[in-house]
Amino acid sequence: MARSLSPEAGRDIPGTSINVESMPGEATITIEAGDVAGIRAALNSYLRWADVAAKVAKEVRG
């Protein structure tokens, strides 16, 4: 999942800094923003992308 989300970390969400790290069995997404709106926008985007990645992985595994 972290590999799927890492390219998104480079996308511009104004006023935010995002880092995606992985360890076996887990991914950590760190979001820093200057305001609540930036955090909300980034969090909503990353949660959606993570959900899609998890659903695709589940389908691939069967």
Q: What labels describe this entry?
A:
two-stranded antiparallel ribbon, alpha+beta, 2 strands
How would you explain this protein's 3D organization?
The chain is an alpha+beta fold. The protein has one domain (2-61). It has helices at residues 2-9, 36-61, and strands spanning 16-23, 26-33. The chain has a two-stranded antiparallel sheet. A hairpin with a 2-residue loop joins strand 1 and strand 2 (26-33). The longest helix has 26 residues, at 36-61. The chain is elongated. The protein contains two helices and two strands.
| Order of the strands making up the biggest sheet | 1-2
Instruction: Give the C-alpha Rg.
Output: 12 Å
Distance between the termini: 17 Å
How many beta-strand elements? Answer: 2
How would the global form be characterised? elongated
Reading the helices and strands in chain order gives HEEH
Most strands sheet = 2 strands, antiparallel
Short description:
The protein has helices at 2-9, 36-61; strands at residues 16-23, 26-33. With 62 residues, the chain is of the alpha+beta class.
Write the layout of secondary structure elements.
Elements: H1 2-9, E1 16-23, E2 26-33, H2 36-61
